Structure formats: structure tokens, C-alpha cells
Inverse folding.
């Protein structure tokens, strides 16, 4: 019996191969510096852990409303006011099982089979695969190094067809770390309105930015789709909690989809996440962001000196996207070799698409500065062997 | 900007309306007996709560493998051996965020746009809506009262078209409570093989059955799809944890879909659910099933005497599907009236489809026997006012 066609379209991730190799080496006792995983090394804040324990003792763990606990929706809406000066109706906030399901929900609400979505690349590898689950198509829009990896309206325009239905932009970006300015959001939103396209903003790295808070799409429009997650800023990847802010006229449809797709988001996570909006907990997370910024600064000072060209301005998230063409045009082989010979694990560009995946790698700075120093030393030594 | 066409196809639930009315009445101080919710009234077993607290203290809450923690997959495989005498490769077990996502995963792996899935009705309301999310189509196969609401091969055969790709059967069934025998699974599987159809078994109420364990599709074939959940037997609805057993040749594709669709199932739930397989915890759950059986027996003795005809043999889950045609041919109005005049909340048949939704209601016996006695008294009194 044959499987669905989409099963042939959904590509595997190279990072999973890397993970396999890393685990094998570690089992052999090799010390590997893990710079390939897309999750912060900071654990869930103690206050959230404690709140979860309290909730386990005192609160029911039954189904709740498919769109989430009202109090949590209110806390989120209120944060948009505090962080972005935006007044948001809590009803537009739909709590989801991770940012992943927020993305899926936005796709399900907007896309018919065959519809095309413009995806700036390099970008998040799941996007085009997730689009296959709704039988839609991701159309890459290449970000070019000679334009600082900035998205241009020109590039969007060139990718338009009569099937284009939406544009999906992540800010801060994975793997670039680049951040959309308010003006850029404005321009893209205007472009989308001109061409009757939905604009979907993946803001799941929000909070983790180094030059003040990254502007939210909500600052420029009430008609866009914004997805968010507790995964990164709150170090809650395994809890599976995120949210979608939908345009007013789509909320009711999203609610119906949610009722069927996932019934309810993880309830304990919702009960616990509530304390994440308390000033002390937010402050703890911002202190962590300050530490992440120190790591970024350290790498920006050390890596270019090794002939490694950092693409874009990494002003958020915890990734550097690095041009290694001075050393290799086969990033996959480069990564495998760097891992084996130097014990440093990074991800080949192939996972992220874009114009030059074969000469790029992603480095996730999810280890402390001491360990990063060690990584830089190992990389330096390894690169010397290549040019020797 | 227009939304996706499927947003018009996904129907809302009447039970949500009922919930709204119930909450309004309760706010007015009215005592409502809640017999409309699809979740057990038993809380998560204390041992699982304790395990969760332990895990919060000692274990990481980061992403885990998209298909789940190996230990949990092994415990599940081992339970199929204990419960069903079936040897199962743990690799075929894919942990999911609730049975809902297991269903979605099976659909995504098997169905192309336009493919048809045969759905015995009355059945679980989400099925046909979920099928719209993958652009497939649910084709109802009516279960008839004069055949004891049993699925016949004849009825399946009549519904076949050249687009039919799969058959989805729930056992124990929601809303009927009926259970597929091993022979019935065998017959349907044979039918599916003859017609090159996938067979998907929704076994999420497994464990909650009153005449021994309900047979699993895995007892008759290795080529079917079986979905399960911690929601009902373990009283863990809000934790969002379930699993899919996929055919060997589909496991790798399911893994790729899971990596994109949900990344990881809730991790704390996985860590905690592990203790659910300990003999004492399983025993506690079976003791609860014994209590659920006593409730069923009580209702089977009292309701028919009121002229309420219980359809099918409710041998599992915690639902009765009741023919109210002696009193009304408008179940929606009947339910609203019963709620308002007698303070008993049940669900109109309309949510579940089938041949006679307008003369049927679903009663969920998720309250204790004392409270059920009260409900029966109230219903009796209410019915008398109708015939007076
Ligand atoms: C750009 C981007 N969007 C969405 C996600 C989904 O994350 P989650 O489902 O944990 O919220 C990720 C995870 O790495 C990501 O990098
Ligand atoms: C027949 C049936 N299948 C699947 C589900 C999904 O449940 P969950 O996602 O909580 O496992 C339900 C929930 O009520 C159900 O009744």
C-alpha cells in the first residue's frame, strides 16, 4: 500500500545526521562541543518549574479551551502593550502546542492546495516541509550576501506568481540572527497588501535580541499573522507551548481548526507559563539574553580573524550563519570533518537553503564563553591543517 | 484577504454551545449534572503526578527525539505483549502530542488531496474536520439501529469509490461505546487488503472496556495503523500525550513528518507517563474502569425503563448513545430543554453524524452513581412533563 505523495517531498534534516555522529563520538569518550542544536542551554526558569509543581498539586490537568486559558491570553496581550506599545484584544491570541503548531494553524487557515508561500532563504528548514502537510508550496526567495542578506521587495516581486498567497518572514531569523526593523515590516506589509498576500511573521525568537527589543509586525498592522513560542526566550522547548496572533476576522476559523487539530494545548505548561510574565522572571530571561549577547560579541571578534565570514547582522536569536568558502565548497563534508578532527559540531547550510548552502554553516552559540573559546581554538587549529 | 476554503468546511461542535449554556446556568447558581464532556472525571493518578514533580526537579525539559523517548516506546511495546500477546518493535511506536496528532500523522502519511476515508457514523466529530486539514474527504458509512449499530462489509462496500484510500474505525467507539471483536477486525482488515485500503484503528479508549480487554487491530495484522492516547485510561487529557503504531514501511516517513509537524511531544508528560506502566498504577486505572462499568450497568438498568433506547452494546469508553425518538425528533431542542428545565447536560446526536442524529443524544457517564441516580430522576421527571 502506497503512502501519500507528500512523504516523498518532506526532506530529512542534516542536523539529525550530525546528532547521530555526535552521539557516536561521545559514546567513544570524545569531547564534542555542541554548536548545532536549536535550543538555548538555559533551563526553564526555577519560578516556572515551581509554578508547575504547584499546579500539579492544586490544579486539574483536564482539557481546557482549545484556544487556551484566558488568563494566559490576557498576560500575552498585556505584554504586547508593555514591550511594543500595542493594544491587542486577548481573543486574537490563540495558545498552541509550540510555535510549530501556530505555524501549522496559520497555514491551515490561509492556504489552499497549490498555493505558494514566499520563504526568504536561508531560513527555517521546517517551513517548506510543513507547507507540504497542507499541500501548499514554499517558494524560496534568496537572500544575497552582497545585499547583507537583507530581504528586498525586488526579490519578493520577482518570485510572485498568480498562485502566491502569503509571505513568511522570521525575525529574529534562524539561521541568520537578523532582525526586521519597523520600516522593513512596514514595507513588506505594504507589498503584501498591494498584492493581496497574507503576511506571516515568525517571531518565536522575540525577546532574544541585542539591540533593544525586535519590532513586532503587530506594531505596524492588525492584519498580519504573528507566531510566538515559549521555547526559546523562556527555555521551555520541551513543554510545547506557543501562540498565534490571528487577524480579527480569522479568529473564529482558527478556533474551529484548533478544536479539531489539537483539542487543547498542554495544560500544565499553560498554568506554569503564567508566572513567566512576572517582572522577576522576565528579568531573569533578559539577563540570559545579556549573556547570549556577550557570546555573540566574542564570536564576532574572533571568527572573522580566522577567515570565516559572518553573513548578515546577527542581532538576535543565538545563531551565526557563516560563509566558509575560503576553506570549502562542500559544507557537509566540512562539518563532518570538523566534528571528527576537532570535536566541534555545527550544521551544514544545506538544511537552510538559500543561494549558497554548500559554502555555509550555522553555528549555534548555546554554550558558555569558556567553551566557545575552546571551540574557536579548535576551529583555528583545524583550519590551519586545511591550508597547511 | 480570503481564508482557505477548508475554513468553511470545518464545522463547529454543538457540544461547545452546550458548554456555553451550562456555564451560564452555573453562574446563575443552577446545579447542572454534566454528562456531556468527553473526558473521565478521574484525575491523573497520584503516582504520575509525583513522577512529574520528580522529573521537574531532576530532568531536562528540552526537546527530545521527535518520535519520543525510547524508554516510553519500549514500555508501550511491552504492554502490547502483556495486554494483547503481540510482539511489537518499539521503533514502530511514535509518541505524539495527544491521540489527535497521531490521527493527523496517520492522515498525513497516507492521504493525498481528494482521497476518501470511510468513517462509520455516528462517530468522532473531529474525524471529518481533521480530514479537511489534509484536503481529504470523510465519507460516512451509516451504522443502522436494526443491525445493532454494527459495521457491515456490505455498507463499506457500498461506500467504495475509486478515490477510497482508507477506513478509520474507533474501538471502543465514541459515541457508541461499542467494541470491535477480533473477528470483526479480521474481516475489515481482509476487506481493506482486497481493496488496497489503509486501515486506521482509533484505540484511544483502550483499557476502558467492560468485557475483558478490547482486541487491538495489532492482534490481527502488522500492516494497520493504530492510534492511542494517555488521555482517557490514564485520565491525562490535558497532558497531550498519545502514540501511533505505524506499519514498518511507514515509520521513516512518519518520523520525517513528526520532525516538522511538532518537533517533539510534551517532554514532562513523557517522563511522567513512564510510571503509568507500573503494575500498581495500571491496577488503579483498572479499578476506575470497574467503577465506570458499575455506572454503565446502573444506566442500562434504569434508562430503558424510561423509554430511552440505548443503541449498540456499550462495552467500553464511557458513553451511551441513546435513541430519544419516543420523545423528540429534534435532539438539539431536546438537549437545550433538558438542560434548562432539568439541569442535565447531554450532547445532541448532530455532532456525531449517522443516519438519525436528530433523534439521538450522547450521554457521558463521567459522574459518580449517586449523581447518575439524580440525573435519572431528573430525566424521568422531565420526560413525564413531555407526555403529560
Ligand atoms: C524559526 C523557527 N520557527 C519556529 C520554530 C518552532 O519552535 P517551537 O515549536 O519549539 O516553538 C523554531 C524552532 O527551532 C524555529 O527556529
Ligand atoms: C474517538 C476519539 N479519538 C481521538 C480523540 C483524541 O483525544 P486526545 O487527543 O486527547 O488523545 C478523542 C477525544 O475525545 C476521541 O473521542
Amino acid at each position: 500500500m502506497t503512502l501519500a505523495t507528500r512523504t516523498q517531498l518532506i526532506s530529512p534534516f542534516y542536523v539529525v545526521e550530525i546528532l547521530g555522529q555526535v552521539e557516536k563520538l561521545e559514546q567513544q569518550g570524545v569531547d564534542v562541543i555542541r554548536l548545532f542544536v536549536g535550543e538555548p542551554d538555559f533551563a526553564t526558569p526555577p519560578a516556572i518549574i515551581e509554578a508547575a509543581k504547584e499546579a500539579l498539586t492544586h490544579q486539574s490537568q483536564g482539557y481546557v479551551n482549545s484556544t487556551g486559558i484566558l488568563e494566559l491570553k490576557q498576560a500575552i496581550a498585556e505584554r504586547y502593550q508593555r514591550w511594543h506599545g500595542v493594544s491587542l484584544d486577548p481573543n486574537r491570541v490563540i495558545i498552541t502546542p509550540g510555535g510549530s503548531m501556530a505555524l501549522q494553524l496559520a497555514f491551515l487557515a490561509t492556504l489552499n492546495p497549490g498555493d505558494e508561500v514566499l520563504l526568504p532563504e536561508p531560513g527555517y528548514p521546517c517551513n517548506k516541509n510543513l507547507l507540504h502537510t497542507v499541500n501548499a508550496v514554499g517558494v524560496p526567495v534568496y537572500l544575497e550576501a552582497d545585499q547583507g542578506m537583507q530581504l528586498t521587495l525586488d526579490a519578493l516581486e520577482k518570485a510572485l506568481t498568480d498562485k502566491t498567497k502569503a509571505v513568511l518572514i522570521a525575525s529574529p531569523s534562524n539561521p541568520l540572527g537578523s532582525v526586521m526593523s519597523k520600516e522593513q515590516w512596514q514595507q513588506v506589509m505594504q507589498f503584501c497588501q498591494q498584492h493581496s498576500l497574507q503576511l506571516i511573521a515568525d517571531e518565536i525568537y522575540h525577546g532574544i535580541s541585542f539591540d533593544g527589543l525586535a519590532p513586532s509586525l503587530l506594531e505596524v498592522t492588525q492584519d498580519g499573522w504573528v507566531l510566538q513560542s515559549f521555547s526559546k526566550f523562556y527555555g521551555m522547548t520541551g513543554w510545547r507551548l506557543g501562540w498565534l496572533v490571528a487577524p480579527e476576522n480569522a479568529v473564529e476559523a482558527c478556533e474551529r481548526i484548533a478544536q479539531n487539530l489539537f483539542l487543547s494545548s498542554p495544560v500544565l505548561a499553560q498554568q506554569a507559563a503564567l508566572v513567566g510574565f512576572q517582572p522577576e522572571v522576565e528579568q531573569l530571561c533578559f539577563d540570559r539574553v545579556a549573556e547570549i549577547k556577550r557570546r555573540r560579541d566574542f564570536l564576532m571578534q574572533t571568527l572573522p580573524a580566522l577567515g570565516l565570514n559572518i553573513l548578515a547582522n546577527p542581532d538576535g536569536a543565538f545563531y551565526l550563519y557563516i560563509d566558509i568558502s575560503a576553506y570549502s565548497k562542500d559544507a557537509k563534508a566540512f562539518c563532518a570533518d570538523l566534528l571528527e578532527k576537532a570535536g566541534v559540531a555545527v550544521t551544514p547550510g544545506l538544511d537552510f537553503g538559500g543561494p549558497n548552502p554548500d559554502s555555509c554553516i550555522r553555528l549555534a552559540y548555546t554554550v558558555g564563553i569558556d567553551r566557545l573559546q575552546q571551540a574557536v581554538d579548535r576551529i583555528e587549529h583545524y583550519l590551519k591543517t586545511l591550508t597547511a
